[in-house]
Amino acid sequence: MYDIEGLGNECTITEVNARAIMEAAAKRRVGGHNERYHEIIEWERRVQKRKYRLISTTEEAFASVQSVTANNQNKIFGEPMEALGAAQAVFSAIARPLNKYLKLTRQQPRHTADQVVAHLARCLSLRFTAATFLQRFFSSKFPFPEHVRETKWSIVCNVQASAGIRHGTVFVLRCHERDDDAGVQLLCSLHSFPFFNLTEQQSLTSKFALKITPESNV
């Protein structure tokens, strides 16, 4: 045994007691790991629970919005409204589960109420699904930063950078910053775009109505 404190014979411990102390310390470390593991599992369970509750509520809210067209104008269940009004009605139905999910995942500062309503109105106008609307809340790539600062990169390629770009060219972009992108290298390959024949089509509707039922939350 080692006399760390330098107390000599006044501080002695038997080998059996020393082994017991070390075993107790090892058990505490293992217990701490298990506790941390269960905390992470519990947090992930809560996230998944609130995520699927949000998905269910949003799908129900989207299903309650009915597009107003010339064919169904006489069959609507409510007063026609613009996309923004329909978005505000849908937001009132999903606000509670959405706020709970954003709070748990610490995304509240990144998604204000006005931004969510504007995103809702855009999705309704383009007839996107509830899954498309929710994509930005489930992805770490959204929202995009408002200001992208200047960074320094270099091109590594067997062909001179001043040469013409051709199909099949492969090069590497290497970052020279000292922040989170330090040492990042992007392998890039160039491919020519196929030909797309685009035609313009007028949107069928810009009006919406709510299908009000006794079970509706909107």
From TrEMBL:
GO annotations of cellular component type: plasma membrane
Protein origin, superkingdom: Eukaryota
Keywords assigned: Cell membrane, Membrane, Transmembrane, Transmembrane helix
Annotated compartments: Cell membrane
Pfam families attached to this UniProt entry: Strabismus
Keyword Transmembrane belongs to the record: yes
Keyword Membrane on entry: yes
Topology class, membrane: Multi-pass membrane protein
Family stated for the protein in its record: Belongs to the Vang family.
Protein's UniProt name: Uncharacterized protein
Provenance organism: Wuchereria bancrofti
